[in-house]
Design a protein that fits this description.
Shape: flat
Number of helices: 4
Distance between the termini: 52 Å
Number of domains: 1
Length: 88
């Protein structure tokens, strides 16, 4: 049995990553409000996926990358909302 198939963290990361499909649809075809929600949800899901991949591959020093993404995505959402303020 392969190590990748026996690792539940990687399976969970794949399951969470599949939920990005509805977020992409929302970001591409929604109103500005829905696009903001889709972008914020995408950043949450990518942060969770990256954290699960870090744990699944056993590379704990790389846990700083999803943590930095979590902090920076909040700022990105604020910039997006400010840019589209007149439409929201």
């Amino acid at each position: 049995m392969s190590m990748l198939a026996a690792n539940p963290w990687l399976f969970a990361a794949g399951a969470v990553a599949t939920t990005l499909i509805p977020c992409a649809d929302m970001c591409l075809r929604g109103s500005p409000e829905r696009r903001l929600v889709g972008m914020e949800m995408t950043s949450v899901l990518i942060t969770v996926t990256m954290t699960l991949l870090t744990i699944g591959f056993g590379r704990m020093p790389l846990i700083d990358i999803p943590l930095a993404l979590a902090i920076m995505s909040f700022g990105g959402g604020l910039v997006f909302a400010r840019f589209f303020e007149k439409h929201l």
